Records
---
Amino acid sequence: MAILKTEGLTYTYSAGTPFEKTAVDHVELSIEDHTMVGVIGHTGSGKSTLMQHFNGLLKPTSGKVLLDGEDIWADKKKMREVRFRVGLVFQYPEYQLFEETVFKDIAFGPKNMGLGEEEIKKRVVETAHMLGIDETMLTRSPFALSGGQKRRVAIAGVMAMRPKVLILDEPCAGLDPKGRNLMLRQIRDYQKTTQSTVLLVSHSMEDVAGFTEKLLVMSKAKLYCYDDTPAVFRRADELKEMGLRVPQISSVMGALRSKGVELPQDIYTVEQARDAMLSLLRKGEGTC
Amino acid sequence: MAEMVEASHISFRYPAEIDEKGNQLESPLILKDISLTVKQGSFVAMLGHNGSGKSTFAKHINAILIPESGTMTVGGLDTKVTENLFDIRQKAGMVFQNPDNQIVATIVEEDVAFAPENLGVPPEEIRRRVDDALYTVGMYEYRKHAPSQLSGGQKQRIAIAGVIAMQPDCIVLDEPTAMLDPQGRQEVLETIHRLNREQGITIILITHYMEEAAEADRVVVIDGGEVVLDDTPAKVFAQVDRMKELGLDVPQVTELVWELRKAGYDLPAEIITEEECVAALENLLQQCSDR
């Protein structure tokens, strides 16, 4: 069942002026429910514009966005509800914190949904736990936290609404390697626990390689492809032409394959490369 | 070669906060007795997890921060001496993470001219410097554009051009590629490597991308306000366990080789580039089939 669908989705900025630019061009897309999707494309490819359509921040110039089979623009009064069902976390969301305490900040969304106090409390505590925000932190001012903690609080605020679809724009930008890895694991665990769909916009091929099932690739305002992650990384040459890359490890495996070494095509993490190399080396164990 | 930056036993802490009861809170030392020299013309990468103190150190290089104890000299000038401030900031320019926070003008060439104007450079000379700087970063054809119409990588190159127009000896870049896409990162890296190679400008690059650090002459790792590793990229990254312990990473190729070494295969430890990795693996497979 598709949770998000677009039909001929097109968006033109500044239509009718000399700056007219089509940022999203006839995108046909169908994203299944309960999926972890990576969204890639170089700057200006239209990926952010596309994401902003999914929760109705932008209205298509033409075409439709269907959420659970319903056109989100069919009834304007329902837009508020759409925004509860599709959560969007912008880049550097820590700049959007504003409440007195961490608890209040995370509770802001659920409160606006009109949930009862008990339910709000339950969601705040649960979500904080999922993101490794300690309970003692809930009574503190969000402004007293470190950058990484602030970002988690901001993300928790959107997650606490339990949207069917959660879109995160570069949630790991500026984090160190350990912080990146932890953040990605927490997002994946959230997706598994809540059985929701998560769209992860990232410039890091290594990040999307290790943590997503599907990849959505935008190029020059068009949907270049939407496919299983390994299938997309198999098209390394095309990605490079688009100004993207493949993970370093895929590139090395590709170079060995082109020299005649028999390695499988779907390698995009270090673990996979290690296993493939070991099985290749051990195959000749008798002789080596 | 002369020393560009010389830190001698520098320590630093931020001013103590006052809580609601008016008590002064304990302010921890961010830099602890750091001694470090950077030679003129070198390319140094600085690594460390968030909060390790690397950005605080960087801000000492152009005297945004002054050490609490110890001495910091830049091109032989002590950052503690107020009269040196202008000269130091002309010698050492800084580029930060977010390109949108460092562009001040509405036209590209005016933005690049901002620093030399403030230095009191004569107008003809400014014209020449701005054109040179824009050529150097490959943005000359965009000189009449509004910065808001440029991509992140282009904006970062404009920020770098603004620094070059001051004719500095050293550029400190604090995670300049964190907000850029792969192509933008490539553009910025090529630019700073060219400046280093062709004009001998000293580069100090703070980054979370291990592949970027792998291309430096030297890697300095900061942890808890102290220098914990300081060597060539190959020697630093070969210490995979140590790097992970420090909350850092190593290039994927280094990690693969490390994993295979752990499994008992004979491979060189100091592999940091794709080419080296491909060659080493090919060699290993060859040995196996020969035997």
---
Amino acid sequence: MEERLVVIGGGPAGISAAIAAAELGAPVTVIEKNAYLGGRPIEENYASLTPYLESAEEVMGRLIAQLTSFENVDVLTSSKVVGASRDHAPFELDVLTGSATSKVEAASVIIATGFTHFDPGRETQLYGYYEFPDVIALQDLEAMLKEGKVTRPSNGETPQRICFVQCVGSRDRQIGNEYCSKVCCGVASKEATEIKLLIPSAEVFIFYIDMRMYGYWENQIYWPAQEKHHVQYVKGIITEVLPKDGKLLVRGEDTTMGRPMEVLMDLVVLSVGMEASPGTRQMAALLGVKQNKYGFIEAANSPLDTVSTSVPGVYAVGAALGPSDLEDCASSGGLAAAKAVRDLHALA
Amino acid sequence: MPVGGNKQAAGVTELAEAIVTSPLSGREWDVSGGSSRMLHSRVLTDYSASGFAKIAALEGGNSLEYCFGCGKCVPVCPVDLVSEYGPRKIHRAVQTGLDLFKSDELWKCTTCGNCLRVCPKEVNMIEVMPAVREVAMVEGTIPDELQQIMEKTFRYGNALGENPRRRPAWTKGAGVDVRVLASDPSPVDVLFYVEDYWSFHPRGQQAAQAFARIMTSLNVDFAILGAEEKTLGDSQRLAGEKGLFEALMEEVIDVLAKYQFNRIVTPDPHGFNALKKVYPKYGHTFEALHYSQLLAPLLEQIDFQGSLEATVTFHDPCYLGRHNGEYEAPRKIIEAIPGVKLLEMGRCRENSYCCGGGGGGMWLDGFNANHLSERLSERRVREAAATGADILAVACPYEVSRFEDAAKSTGNEGLRVMDIAEMVDIAMRGEDWRS
């Protein structure tokens, strides 16, 4: 059997890695649990991608078309890696497709199993996500934006007052997620902009602890949201959401004014952060790869080698390594491909 | 709240009349009913973009909304040091419902420009404030004392309400001939635009006389407009009277068109700012110089008869320094005077403190007394005195009277306030500045 380079996960990082490896001439197998490629942006119905507001379907569609145009790429959808051994070649993977099992011999493995959105129902984050229909999360709003219609789930009306609550599930010792999820400030600002474009009469607010707009996102997303689209940024995070007269009363402290705030909203959007996906945890366990305390895969030679793991021949890319934006996914994907192809040549 | 198990009667929480005395300046101000403000709900119940939208609809008003709350402007805002102010705070206040058009906050800004110097988002209060003030002027929500100045400027062409025919009165004490163009309209090199405070204020007149003597000794060919001169009105513009400024400009342009001159020299950084930055926007371009810029390159030609023997500190005028980038010319002059040692204040050059006179502040002393813990000029004089200097040198006609008053009110009578032209004149003539 031919030894192949195996990419587990067909999202932005996995596809980027597979394309790079295929361009270098390697035989590549992509194993994707869903029946389709595209990962989180497609699975969660993202309307557009940050920072350029391009359609997620179009961007991912281009990437997928590029991937599937290679003759040396096999894509196994609806497939999961359920076993791994090192009896033959570096790795022998058991792949379950539907009810059929097959074996794939891998010279090296790239884990691209990504993240999952934080579930906003946990202690200290009691914003009523499961109690109030009009409390939604970033990805719920993405799905609405994709449909081109933002409404209050409770009554179908067009919301006129919408707020985002930042850092839900991130930067919290009690939850155990001490890290910043890196993209939510940008994504919230992007979605706020899209709401204003869709509902010009709406007032949109972003309540934040710190705005974390690294690099070019500052004036690609944040400044235009504030200066051109009149999104109101308020420093001070919301602690409580209470029902009031058919609306939602958000309560917090305005820290720069040093005063309490109680403001009525039609729609509250929780900027949920990233957590290690079940797939990331499972693949790390199966391949014996060291994870950090948050369940993400640990880059063994950080900071200048961002993709090598504790197991030689196994690499991790994108949000399997921790909170990542799309540029991170593409960069780490390319680096892992280069290292994995090197392994393939070393064996030959 | 129960104390010791017994419910207590409500205490007095509000004084109908209350006067507080500043431990710094000794000034009293009225905070009657102040404590009752504390009894209002502290809860913020709304944020809105509508206040920004109303301001952004005005020319120059769009940038207030750009503030992202970094707070860099607050420590360098001269008004914040003596009250609760600063552009960041104005931004948040508008976001939380302040109607800036009707607020006292509108009149505190001196347009000194130090906030804009440090603002990463280029929030331009020098454009925002005058734009909002212009609307307030029309709506009539303007402090009375400022309104009176606008009326005087409109009627007499000067902010002091003086008879325009008395404009050239200062020339009588100059001891040199000062040509008035109306009586001798032949071409001239330098049109000396005297502006209001050098024309009419007694201490300004002394500086004007000194400057005339210096120019004469340097054989500068100069003349004045005399009774035909009207203020350029830049501070009136920044206080919100753009219409008055434009009307004055038309009259000024008509008068200037009658004469041939190479350049305009003015002692007033505000007028200089108008000629250099604002007039060109209306298509009127002149070679304009601040008097320090005329003198600085000529100083080596002066035959100083004496030596000043003084330590001097220099106050950079906002509209000469920060607004127009000229920091060196006045310093060159000071340092060229024999027997002078220049001591810089901590806040100097780009970060110079404001005297409080710009943007209409010159005419809001009564208003500001109720809003500021002390005058900006008082705070500046304190800083000048702390250098140990004998003389506080100034290069703006607003400042001599402001700082002399402040030196008295702060107990720094020993600090002499002098225009740089007066200093040059005294050393040139070999006189003693102490006499």
